Amino acid sequence: MALPTFPTTEAELIEDTTSDDMLNGGHRTLFFPLLLAALALAEYAQLTGEEIETLAAQTEADAASAAAGSGTEASVANIRAAADVAHYLSMRRVVASQAIVALTDGSTISWDMDAGINVSVTIGAAGRTLANPTNQIAGKSGFLNVAQDGTGGRTITNWG
Q: How many whole angstroms separate alpha carbon 117 and alpha carbon 156?
């Protein structure tokens, strides 16, 4: 279940009604619309509370399941490989899995996405070949930063 839609119109009616609006018979024409608006806001609050209770119960069930299950934190390698294991994710490991990893310069530069999702390489000669990344899976993307050494004039001429 998703959170209910906030009753904006009803809330605006209540917010915009002043005590002056209730004078000289205004209370007779505004009483029922204001009552219905208040009921709509009360229903919204009730449904929102029920949704929060449902989410809290799910969180409690997930925590109990994790404690009873593997209770194992996914490693950086698990995350980089998108391993299908029953481990929980921690933010520190997710962030660590995104750290930039240096590739080794050579005539052919290899990129293993299990070893690093975001990578950099400084090329030290012209005519380098960049091989296709290995261990790619659908939905996995990464960042490649290529720089030249201080001499300059370096190139990648062959792309995988």
A: 20
